[in-house]
Amino acid sequence: MKLITAIISESKLDMVREALIEAEITRITVSRASGFGRQVREEIYRGKKMIPNLNPKVRIDIAVNDEFVDITVDAIIKSARSQGDGEIGDGKIFIQSLEEVIRIRTGERGSAAI
Question: Can you give the CATH number for the domain in which 102 is found?
Fold first, then answer.
């Protein structure tokens, strides 16, 4: 079992969600996130150039069984990447091992709970 966390641009959320549904990945958690990396964006505020400290992003968390990891990652990459070779700020994907998953309603554990 793996936990896949994707940090993507807000504008790509609908495309990523549709790609995941098409890949039959339907159980996701979405939350707002802010971060700072190599992406630099200048804004004009009251006539002054400003570089915001944190850029708005979206965080998607998906718990999957091992056989769905590549399917999920491929769907996210294809739908979140900007045209061409992509751009700075397209996001990142993190994959972590899940020690245990428990469905609260039924008490199921492990792969059955996902």
Answer: 3.30.70.120
How far is it, in rounded angstroms, from Cα 10 to Cα 44? 21
- Give the range among 11-15, 41-45, 83-87 with minimum mean pLDDT: 41-45
Question: Which residues have a Cβ under 8 Å from the Cβ of 107 and sit 6 or more positions away?
Answer: none
Q: What is the domain extent for residue 47? A: 2-113
Element (H, E) at 32: strand 29-35
What sign does the CA torsion over 10, 11, 14, 18 have? Answer: negative
Average confidence (pLDDT) over 84-105: 92
CA dihedral 5, 11, 13, 15 (to 10 degrees): -120
> How many separate domains does the chain show?
1
The H or E element spanning position 35 is strand 29-35
pLDDT, tens digit, for every residue of 1-41?
A: 999 999 999 999 999 999 999 999 999 999 999 887 776 66
